[in-house]
């Protein structure tokens, strides 16, 4: 009996209640079966990158699953790179912030979460923590599936395409940072996850 742990990592200021996280979770639960059980883990990440990764790796390390797959959106895609290299597992990255420290440096200070308006302090030391988690080169491109939108208003899709050279890539004409048409591309995500 095979078992898989799928870890979904949301983006900066986002949450497990984001539409992409919920859609992916529903699709994963729909393909989980007695013969091929899939555990879904989509935690609320913490403001501290270091503490977020400690929490996620503790969950992964305690899991009894045979295989691990990581899905990450935006900042979550940056974390997915770190985890995919650490655990030599597959990763799906959705408009990933491949250089998160650089992207988030201007956002140090008090921020609010998108869906709850909950305030949190994004501290200067978190930028150093992000630098410590930076993957400069992915070692096995075939383990990765990138979905990048040319219409991303926050991040440069060309940088993503270059970073994941050799990986499976779906580059969307238009769309946006949140990938508003994600439901159309979810079957490809599920197909990539389902392949051994």
TrEMBL record:
InterPro entries: AB_hydrolase_fold, UPF0227/Esterase_YqiA
SUPFAM superfamilies noted in UniProt: alpha/beta-Hydrolases
Pfam family, one: UPF0227
Gene3D superfamilies: alpha/beta hydrolase
This protein's name: Esterase
Organism from which the protein derives: Polynucleobacter asymbioticus (strain DSM 18221 / CIP 109841 / QLW-P1DMWA-1)
Lineage: Bacteria, Pseudomonadati, Pseudomonadota, Betaproteobacteria, Burkholderiales
